[in-house]
Amino acid sequence: SDNRKQKTIFYLGRLEQRKGVKHLIHAFKLLHDHNPNVVLVIAGDGPDRAKLETLAADLGVDEQVSSIGFISEKEKIHYLRTTDLYCSPALYGESFGIVLLEAMATGTVTVAGDNPGYASVLKGLGALSLVNPKHHAEFSRRLDLLLHENDLRRIWREWAVSQLQQYAYTTIVDQYEEV
Predict the structure, then answer these.
(1) pLDDT digits (tens, 9 = 90+) for 13-36
(2) How far apart, in whole angstroms, are the C-alpha atoms of residue 156 and residue 158?
(3) Cα gap 120→16, rounded to integer Å
(4) Residues 2 and 77 sit within 8 Å (Cβ to Cβ)
(5) How does pLDDT run across 153-175, given as a tens digit for each residue?
(6) With a threshold of 0.70, does the pTM exceed it?
């Protein structure tokens, strides 16, 4: 794989403690030490935005971390389609993770916090994506692997396609009618 090309990691969500973005920035710093061509785009707003921007500056990665604030639905789809990796490091309180399905549907390889809501979507081979965001070294290694190992990325995408069928509209409608 060509590691010289700039790679992008994308986060989208509210900027609050339970979303784990602080841990993503720490893991990104470790990743960036070995991969200077990686950038992190943080979309969304919330009470921790200024604190997270300060953290990036304190860690010396503020040049590589873009905090872009709230984005539209159209922009979200654009970012998901063009980013190399989607990351949602939520610690807890995620019911299901619709954005994970959106990432899977756009073929965007994902790294996600190991909470029950996300684990219910990222089953089987998808469990490769689950990390404990508080373990920064391990988190960083997983970002690195799923960003740069093209064989692993291809297998992940094949898994995602196979999973999405169960969330198809027709399947869901039948389930609703049963309920």
Answers:
(1) 999 999 999 999 999 999 999 999
(2) 5
(3) 23
(4) no
(5) 999 999 999 998 777 656 555 66
(6) yes
Which residues lie closer than 8 Å to 6 by C-beta, 6 or more apart? 37, 38, 39
Q: Which two tokens stand for residue 22?
A: 């602080």
Q: Which of 112, 145, 105, 117 is nearest to 129 (CA)?
A: 112
Phi first, then psi: give them for residue 41, nearest 5 degrees.
-110, 120
Cα–Cα dist 52/58, whole Å: 10
Query: Rounded to an integer, what distance in angstroms lies between the CA atom of residue 85 and that of residue 107?
Result: 10
